[in-house]
Design goal:
The chain is of the alpha+beta class. It is built from seven helices and 17 strands. Strand 14 and strand 15 form a beta hairpin.
Length: 448
């Protein structure tokens, strides 16, 4: 079995090298359609240059797409109207799907257990999310605004928290995230994906709007379409007889993508989400392009290996230096060091970089951040970066969550290195953004 894995790893990495060469030598920029066909793991809900939704891992059950009709997006209006009926909300046709009942919930946060049947007469927004998903986090300011404006008008938001990583099943972690992000609506822990499968859902985040009769009238996957979603909220509330004449229809402004990200090729395009764990890498190795570009990584799971950094980085891939253990969902620093000699390195193109990290045994540790082999500057640092007396940028990892590492004023290419002397250092994934001015929503929170 080990020899087969080595042979597969060798073949796949050779194919990946060919892919890199072709990408670097391509003279023409990609169109969105070409980008969607690129041999990279697909993490997009739609063929756009910038990913706005996240697919579950390959070993997570992924049912067929929902049969619920999704209204097509109409031409934009000049401004939100007081009555959404006059803009985009179409009457029920009789072919809508009744909302599946919530099921298999491990625990409830912010609420006693509820059912969708109990919400008849109200409008329900079902939000599938998980607390380290950057695409989910970016939608939270809009959900909070809608909760504040419409909760006393009959809108019920139900957050269905379906975990991407094992630690996201932990109730205390989800409570910490819910409090950290300031979420006040009911959150159901769908740890076994039972409600996810009942909806035939496939993406984080996903939003389903349910009318007063329990019918799914509107769905949206990924980030964006906030004005459209709010118009549907207002329209369905008005169908239920709610007077919204004194409630502003203005939606929070939507962030804009940096102009420089458009029309880029594979090597200069926005860096894909990068996973560090063995399972995601091995599945990607067999289907497209893996994330870690070291052949020995694929020989055996959960093994401690000393890696040598090749020093020549390509966009979309992760490189290792030092002793690391390749666990199922994460890379773990496998020894204690003194001078930050072991590190994780990558080249990225983005305006922002986040990383999902956690302690091993519930303690805390510091991660030093280098940009182009220099201490990250305050002008480029994310909100979770602090600085010591010598000007070294670092992050204190004290809980299992996403940390905001890099925030740039424009779309740029850099080399990023993360290092820690602690054997507690573990990393699950990197995510990247391309919004003008960096990350539009705070991805971190104070756990103290």
């Amino acid at each position: 079995m080990k020899s087969i894995r080595i042979a597969l790893a060798t073949l796949a990495l050779l194919l990946t090298a060919a892919f890199i060469f072709a990408a670097c030598s391509s003279p023409e920029p990609q169109t969105p359609a070409e980008a969607a066909d690129a041999p990279l793991p697909q993490t997009q809900a739609q063929p756009t240059t910038v990913p706005t939704a996240t697919l579950p891992p390959a070993n997570t059950p992924k049912p067929a797409p929902t049969a619920t009709p999704v209204p097509s997006k109409p031409a934009p209006t000049a401004a939100p109207q007081a009555s959404a009926h006059e803009s985009i909300v179409t009457p029920a046709t009789g072919n809508e799907q009744t909302v599946p009942e919530i099921r298999g919930i491990a625990s409830w946060i912010n609420s006693e257990p509820i059912t969708f049947e109990q919400q008849r007469g109200k409008v329900v927004l079902v939000d599938f999310w998980t607390y380290t998903c950057v695409n989910c986090i970016r939608t939270l300011p809009y959900l909070k605004a809608w909760h504040e404006k419409y909760a006393d008008k009959g809108l019920v938001i139900v957050g269905v928290h379906t975990p991407e990583f094992e630690f996201e099943k932990d109730r205390d972690n989800v409570i910490e995230a819910t409090e950290g992000f300031g979420l006040e609506w009911p959150v159901a822990q769908d740890n076994d994906f039972k409600t996810w499968r009942a909806f035939n859902n496939r993406y984080w985040p996903a939003k389903y709007l349910v009318d007063k009769d329990g019918l799914i009238r509107y769905t949206h996957f990924g980030e964006g379409a906030y004005e459209e979603t709010e118009l549907w909220i207002r329209g369905l509330l008005e169908e239920a007889g709610v007077d919204l004449s004194e409630v502003s229809a203005k939606t929070l402004a939507e962030p804009e993508y940096d102009d420089d990200v458009r029309g880029t090729d594979r090597e200069t395009g926005l860096t894909r989400e990068i996973y560090a764990g063995f399972e995601r890498n091995y599945n990607a190795l067999l289907s497209s392009a893996p994330y870690v570009l070291h052949q020995e990584y694929y020989e055996e799971e959960d093994s401690e290996i000393f890696y040598t950094d090749p020093g020549d980085y390509r966009n979309h891939f992760l490189y290792l230096q030092g002793l690391w253990r390749n666990e199922a969902e994460r890379l773990v620093h496998a020894r204690e060091t003194e001078n930050y000699e072991d590190y994780l390195a990558l080249k990225f193109n983005a305006t922002s970089v986040n990383a999902v990290m956690s302690p091993i045994n519930g303690g805390e540790y510091d991660v030093r951040v280098l940009l182009n082999d220099m201490p990250i500057s305050p002008d480029a640092a994310g909100t979770d970066v602090m600085f010591d007396a010598d000007g070294n940028g670092y992050i204190t990892v004290d809980s299992a969550r996403m940390y905001h590492i890099v925030n740039l004023p424009g779309y740029q290419s850099h080399e990023l290195k993360l290092s820690s002397n602690s054997p507690e250092f573990s990393l699950f994934a990197y995510t990247f953004g391309a919004y003008d001015g960096g990350e539009p929503a705070p991805t971190g929170y104070d756990t103290n």
